[in-house]
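cache lookup: miss for this entity combination. No prior model stored, computing from scratch. Input as submitted by user K.M.:
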Amino acid sequence: MGSPEARMHVETLAPGAAVIAISGDVTSACEQALMSAHEEASDTGATLIVLDFTDMAYMNSGGIGMLVTLLVRSQRRRQRIAAVGLTSHYRQIFELTRLDEAIALFDDMSAVLESAR
Amino acid sequence: MSEQPERDAANWASKVERLHVTEDLRRHGYNVEGRRVAGPQQGFGRLWQRTSMARLGEAVTPEALVADWRANFGSYWPSTAHFHGGIGGIQPGDVTPLTAGPMTTGILVLYADETSFTFLTPEGHMFAGMITFSASIVDGGTCARIDILLRMADPLVEAAWPVVHPAEDRFWAGTLRNLAAAHGVSRVRVEQTTTLVDGRRLWRNWGNVFHNAAIHSAWHAVSTPVRERRRPR
C-alpha cells in the first residue's frame, strides 16, 4: 500500500499534561513506537496524556486494538487519556467501538486544557 | 481538520448505537437484536491477547486467502459452532448471529479490507473483545493469523476461563487447519500464544451477567413452546 510509517512526537502541554502527536498510518505495527512514546510522556510526570491525531493519515482495526492496550497501561498509572484532531470519520469509529467512553474526545488543545482546569 | 472522505472509509462499519440483524437472520438473532457492542473496555475479566497462526507457504497469496476466508468464513469453522452469515461474505457493518453449542450470540463486522477483517462482540457474548483475522507474508510465505483481544464478559464466564481457554484454542486451531486444507496445505502446524495484558477484573462491569447469552439462550429454548402457542396463525 506504500503507507507512511507512523511517527510519534512527545511534548509537554502543561504541568501534568503531555501530548503524543501521531502522524502517518496507525496500525498494530506501530505498537512499540506508541508504547515508547507513552513511556516518554509518563516520565514527565503527566497524569493527562493527549493523543493528537491531527496528522494521522489512516488507522485500521489493529490501531484500535493498540489504543485499548494503551488505555490499560494508562489506567495502571492512574493517567487519563484524551484525543484531539480526529476527523468525523474516526470520531465515529471511536464512538462505534465505545472507546469514547474511556478516551475523552476534544476538538482542540484549548478544549483539553479547559477540561483539565 | 479534513472532512474529505478517508481512504479507508469503506472498510469500516458505520456508526450504530444498537445492533440490528436483517430479517432473514432474525430467527437466530434474538441475542443480538437491540444490543450494543461491547469491546474489551466493557468486559469484566482479565484482558488477554491471544494469537493463533498457521504458515501456508506459497500455496496462496494473502489477498486471495483473505478473499476466500471472507467469502466462506463459516464453512471453515469446526462443526461445534455455526456462523449464520449470509451469502455476501464478510462485509463491514454486517451483524451476524452465531451458535456455539447451546448458546446463540453474534458479532459485528467492524472492519474489513484485502488482508484482514475484524469482529466486535455484542453485549451478552461470552467475550467482550475484538478478533482480527488476517494474512501476511512472513519469511517468504503466507501466514494466516487470528488475533483476539478479549476480556471474559461477566463473572460467570470469567470463572469458566480454565475450561473456555483450551476449548477456544482447539476451535481456532481447527479453523486454521480447515482453511489451510482448503488451499491444499494439509497437516499445517498451528502456533498459539496467550498473553495476559491486564490482570485486573473490571468489577464495574459485573452486571454484564444480566446480558449473558448462555442464560438468555436457555430461557429462549424453554420458552419456545409458549411463544409458538402465542404466535398468530
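stored under new cache key. The CA atoms of residues 30 and 110 of chain A lie 28 Å apart.
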